[in-house]
Amino acid sequence: MENQSNQKPNELRTEEFVVNIGPQHPATHGVLRIEATLDGEIVKNVQPHLGYIHRGIEKMTESMPYKQSIFLTSRMDYLSAHINNHACSLAIENALGIEVPARAKAIRIIMDELQRLTSHELWWGSCAMDIGAVTPFFLGFRDRERILEIFEANTGNRLTMHYIVPGGVMRDVLSTFVTDVKELLKKIKGYRHEYDQLITGNYIFQHRTQGVGYLSKEQAISLACSGPVARASGVSCDIRKLHPYDGYENLDFKEVIDYGCDNWARYVVRMEEMNQSIHIIEQLLDNFPTGDYRTKIKGIIKLPEGEYYQRVETARGELGVYIVADGSNKPYRMKFRTPSFSNLGAVNPTTVGLKIADLMANMSTIDLVIPDIDR
Hints:
This protein has helices at 57-60, 66-70, 81-96, 102-131, 135-155, 177-200, 203-209, 217-222, 227-231, 239-242, 263-286, 339-343, 347-351, 356-366, 371-374; strands at residues 16-21, 33-39, 42-49, 164-165, 168-169, 306-314, 317-325, 333-337. The chain is an alpha+beta fold. The chain has one domain: Cytochrome-c3 Hydrogenase, chain B. The strands form 3 sheets. It has a 3-stranded antiparallel sheet. Strands 6-7-8 form a 3-stranded antiparallel sheet. Strand 6 and strand 7 form a beta hairpin. The longest helix is centred in the N-terminal third of the chain and has 30 residues, at 102-131. It is globular, with a radius of gyration of 22 Å. The termini are far apart.
């Protein structure tokens, strides 16, 4: 009897099935559900499902004075809290025509770059663990802890600092700040070789990342990716270079761009960005300004009626703050363009056709912070 199916004799029959990756416990700080369609171990489609940690931050800003609404942004990308507050403060300052003192600008940039270091150190450890290495996770937290101690000593907080405000910073840094940060950077440089010994030069890690998770330059632009994800695909998009703010235009540093377009390129970009952050901080410490740490402004902020936009470079890419003001002490509308939301679109094109284990590696190098997506 003639075989009516398209299946060849002795050919293994397969069929597609759907696996839910997440959501994790709904009380955790970041919850994302990935619906992965598989044929065996091969990924046919990846569909992210959002909204598990949506808190209505954008809507809440409409009922809060400008000064208070700034600090809601600390809880979006909580690994870029300083930088998020910086973006909102800049938007308000530009609307009011406020000039920030040089000392405040230097403190802001130092805090931003220390924040970038803490984020990349945490990413390095968790990325390695997602791919199968446990030790780097503990080392990443060990190294990040030293920076958090600087944050705690000078701002009173470790994660959501609420330190950068319109006009400057909440309070001046300690008299030992410059010495403390220089000593910190010395320690950071001293242990960077451990990162290369454990992971960068590790053959297994290289095999899992090189040539895996390909995202072309055209795809990165089409998906509006930003930050290390886009720069690893050859896209020049560093806001600190393209639209400098608070003195970045006066600093010597490189925009780190790689053309590998894969997981390895995204790893290399972040590792080099850590070196550039150290270089930026050292320049400011060597010429640390004196003077005021904040410009005095009115206790109640009222923005002139109009529309205002400000962008900054967080640890994950471009954060845009769009404010519609009606002349009152509260924003009529505040909208955030967050990098994790745009970068999430890269999960599908980098993964389809690969194996399920590669999905974990891809998501690690894309480096998503889920509350930054849901808002």
